[in-house]
Amino acid sequence: MKKISLTLIGLYLLFVHGFSQVSEQYSNMFKAKPLKLEEINLVTSYYTQDGNHSAVTGGIGTEKLTDFANMLELKLVGYSDKGLKHTFLAGLGVDHHTAASQKWISSTGASSPEGTRVYPSLNWTVQNEEKGNEFGIGTYYSNEYNYKSFALDAHVGYKNKSGGELGFKTSAYFDKVVLIYPSELIPTSTTELAPTYNYETIKTSASRGSGGTIVNGVNVVESTHANIPTSPRNTYTSSLTLTQVINKSAQASILLDIVKQDGWLGLPFHRVYFTDGTEKIENLPHSRLKIPIGFRFNYFVGDNLIIRSYYRYYTDDWGLKSHTVNFEVPYKITPFFSISPFYRYYTQTATKYFAPYKQHLATETYFTSNYSSAAFSSSFYGTGLRIAPPNGIGNTYLSTLELRIGHYTQTTDLNSNVISLHFTWK
Amino acid sequence: MKNKKQKFYILLATFFSMLFISSCEVVKEYQKNRINDSEMALSARRAEKNELNFMSYKEGAAGANGGKTGGGCGCN
Predict the structure, then answer these.
(1) Which of B27, B63, B72 is nearest residue A290 as measured by Cβ atoms?
(2) The CATH number of domain A34-179+229-425, selected from 3.90.76.10, 3.50.7.10, 3.90.1200.10, 2.40.160.40
C-alpha cells in the first residue's frame, strides 16, 4: 500500500513538473514588456561653406555660410502580450545658421543673417518578429522664420526566410513658404496680394528687429510676422526598398522614390536679373515630378575590410538629370575600432529654367539663377572613425562614438567642410 | 518617361536586379555574423544624416538614400 501511494505521489509530482514547464514556456512567449528606453542617439554637425553664386543676389555674391545642426533621438521599445514589438522614436532637431547672403534680402544689407530651425518628430512601428512583417506611422514638424512644415508618413515592411526584405513608405509634407521678398521688390499695391495682406503694416522681414523703415514712400512700422502672407508647398513621396542577402559576405538593396511636388517651389527672396537690366524674384513651375533610383552593395572582404558602395540615378521633369557614386571602405583595426575613408562623386545637368546672372531674357516665363539648378560636378571626400567596445566606452552607457570629417567642392567654385559626431547611449 | 535612353537604363537596372537576386544563396542565422556587422548595414550612417541634408540644399537631386526627397525645410 505504501509503495503504491509513493508511486502515485511520484507520478503526480512528475506530471505537475512537466505541466509547469509547458505553462512557463507559453507564459514567456506572451509576456508583455513595458516600454523601456533602449537607446539614445545624438548627431551634431558643424558645416561651413563659401562660394560666389548666391541666389539671393541673383547668382553672384558671397555664399559664405555656417550651420550648426543637432539631432537627438530617443528609442523606446516594449512588447505586447501577443509578442508584438512596439518601437517609438522621438526626435528633436535644432539647427542654427549664419548666412552672409541672407542680409542682402534687404537691398541695404540690413537683414538678419541668422536663423534657427526647430524640428521635432515622432514615429511608431509595430513588428511581428516571428513572421517578419511590420507597420509604422510617423509625424514631423519644422519651424523656421521663413518656412513651416508638417508631415505624415506610413510604412510597411516584410522579411522572408531567404534573407530578403521588402519595404514601402509613403509620406506627405504640407509646407508653407513665407513670402519674404527682397526689399526693393515688395509689391506696392495691395491688390497684388491676398486681401488680408496690409502693406502698410508690413516691414520686410529682412530687417526684422531693427526699427521702422521707409519703403517706396510708405512708412513701414514694426512688423508682425503673422501679417506676411504664405503660399503652400506640398510634397508627396512613395518609396520602395528591396534588400537581399546575397551570400555570407555580401548584401544589396534597391531604393526607388517617386516624388511629386506642387505649390511655390522656389524661394521668394531669390533675385533674377535679366539681360535688359530689369530684376524680378525667381519664378518656377508650380509642379515637379522627381524620380531617383539608388543601389547599395556592401561586401565584407577577408576579416577586416568592408566595401560600402552606392549609386543613384536621378531625373525630373524640370530637365535635371544626375549621377551619384559613393564608396566607403571601413577598415577594422580591431573588432571595435574602425577607420572609414570615403569618396563621393556627383554630376548633374542644368534644369530648363536656369541661367547665370543677367543671362535670362525678360520674355521668359520661368527663370532662376539658383546654382543648385546649374550644370556642375562635385566631389566629397573624407574619413570616419568609429569606436564601439562591447562594454561601452570607458565602461559607461556610451556604447558607440563616430566622428566624420569631409571636404566638398563643386565646379561652380562652391566649397565646404563638415565635421559630424554621433553618440549612442544604450 | 519619354526618353528611350532612360527606358533602356531602367530595363537594364531591372534585369541586373533580377539576375542578382536569383543568384543569392540562403544564409543561415548562425552564418550571418558578417552580414549583421553594423558597418554592413544597407543604409546611410546616422553620422551622415546632416551631410545628406547639406548636399540636398546645394544640389538639384535628392532621394533614394533614406534622406530628404523634398519639403520639410526652406532649402528649396
Answers:
(1) B63
(2) 2.40.160.40
